């Protein structure tokens, strides 16, 4: 185990993570580890960097909002992994790390000399995490995958949207986020096991597996009934009432998730008759008579404004909310969800806190996302690479130039053999190459 971090910096202080990933799933996982105190070194192409540096607008001071969202708490080293010297330096970084995270297209890391078996031979204690589009054994296991395509393939789109409308993609790359959460969870378990055995672990996470497991009760319903679930819009297939209702001036979401909450709802609505009606007494009854009950409730909700209903329902102990916009929700949450950090190019900037908190430790790194290659000299010096050697590597474009900084190059991408190819600015959420 390394001991480069401040022991007071969080529960993962002393853990070093080498982040060979890009875009969303991998960087999100490593950012969560950084929030917990791990030292994260992000390896990027020395000129192009992570694809998301160019996924703009919006951007600020040359830094894309997308990149800022998932890369705080990291140091960036610009390194050409396709060159033998770059690969050798990457292997030295692996040897000094506790965790490696990569999301190359299957086989790509191995072709670069950085695959699990190759690295494990030199660093048997390493926790090595591979994120791919498809799990091993799947017919498409060797394919690349985008979040949007996996949403469609997994059935997630099929159960999202109005019953009479078209299947709908969720408004955020949720599959990638789930994969990142799965990766960070499994990495923590592997580190715990290493404490017990002294041995490393190969953690594998797939976008499709994350999407399918994330379907939870919907997937279980399909398996039990051997029937396609279908779409329910803003309603719930197994709970009634659990949906939006139109009000005098807008929409309110009501989540009466059990019989007690339903009775509270009837009290707020001043409709005790609906609470005592045998057709609606139990949730299973309400599901069977969904249309009749919803029609009754819909008339009542038209009698007040959204704000009035939200206040009355909360006062009555019924979970409910207006349908907020994203910015409105963030502003409403305030410092409980949003923090301000200082960035070397951007200056003070706001970012969203992680969805967890620890009572006895900070759960948000105070280190901003790095400029491209910002820490190249610092990290290589720690490896024992002297200034003369760094200058020679820089002259051959194997490491980042000293003036790369904010992303301002022509957007290009590279396949997993390192050969650059011009591509248009990406418009989809992510790709595991």
TrEMBL record:
Keywords: Transferase. The keyword Zinc-finger does not apply. InterPro entries: CoA-transferase_III_domain (IPR050483), CoA-Trfase_fam_III (IPR003673), CoA-Trfase_III_dom3_sf (IPR044855), CoA-Trfase_III_dom_1_sf (IPR023606). GO terms for molecular function: formyl-CoA transferase activity. Its EC number is 2.8.3.16. The keyword Transferase applies. Residues 414-433 are annotated as: Disordered. Residues 424-433 have a biased composition (Polar residues). Pfam families: CoA_transf_3. This is Formyl-coenzyme A transferase. The lineage of its organism: Bacteria, Bacillati, Actinomycetota, Actinomycetes, Pseudonocardiales.
């Amino acid at each position: 185990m390394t001991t480069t971090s401040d022991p007071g910096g969080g529960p993962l202080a002393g853990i070093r993570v080498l982040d060979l990933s890009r875009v969303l799933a991998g960087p999100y996982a490593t950012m969560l580890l950084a929030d917990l105190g791990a030292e994260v070194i992000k390896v990027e192409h020395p000129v192009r960097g992570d694809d998301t540096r160019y996924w703009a607008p919006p951007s600020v001071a040359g830094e894309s909002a997308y990149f800022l969202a998932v890369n705080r708490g990291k140091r960036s080293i610009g390194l050409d992994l396709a060159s033998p010297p770059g690969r050798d330096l990457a292997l030295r970084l692996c040897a000094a790390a506790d965790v490696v995270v990569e999301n190359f297209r299957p086989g790509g890391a191995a072709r670069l000399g950085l695959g699990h078996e190759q690295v494990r031979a030199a660093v048997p204690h390493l926790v090595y995490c591979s994120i791919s589009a498809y799990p091993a054994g799947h017919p498409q296991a060797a394919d690349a995958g985008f979040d949007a395509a996996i949403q469609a393939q997994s059935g997630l789109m099929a159960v999202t949207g109005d019953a009479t409308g078209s299947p709908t993609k969720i408004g955020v790359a949720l599959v990638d986020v789930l994969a990142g959460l799965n990766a960070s969870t499994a990495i923590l378990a592997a580190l715990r096991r290493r404490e017990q055995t002294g041995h490393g672990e190969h953690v594998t996470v797939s976008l499709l597996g994350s999407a399918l497991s994330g379907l939870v009760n919907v997937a279980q319903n399909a398996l039990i009934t051997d029937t396609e679930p279908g779409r329910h819009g803003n309603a719930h297939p197994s709970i009634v009432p659990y949906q939006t209702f139109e009000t005098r001036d807008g929409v309110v979401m009501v989540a009466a998730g059990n019989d007690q909450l339903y009775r509270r709802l009837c009290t707020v609505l001043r409709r005790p008759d609906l609470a005592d009606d045998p057709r609606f007494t139990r949730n299973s009854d309400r599901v069977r008579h969904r249309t009749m009950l919803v029609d009754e409730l819909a008339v009542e909700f038209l009698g007040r404004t959204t704000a009035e209903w939200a206040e009355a329902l909360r006062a009555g102990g019924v979970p409910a909310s207006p349908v907020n916009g994203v910015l409105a929700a963030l502003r409403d949450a305030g410092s409980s969800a949003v923090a301000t950090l200082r960035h070397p190019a951007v200056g003070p900037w706001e970012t969203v806190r992680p969805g967890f908190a620890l009572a006895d430790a900070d759960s948000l790194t105070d280190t901003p996302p790095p400029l491209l290659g910002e820490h190249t000299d610092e990290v290589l010096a720690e490896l024992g690479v002297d200034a003369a050697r760094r200058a020679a590597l820089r002259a051959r474009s194997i490491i980042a130039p000293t003036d790369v900084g904010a992303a301002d190059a022509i957007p290009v991408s590279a396949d997993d053999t390192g050969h650059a190819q011009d591509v248009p600015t990406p418009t989809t959420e992510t790709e595991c190459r």
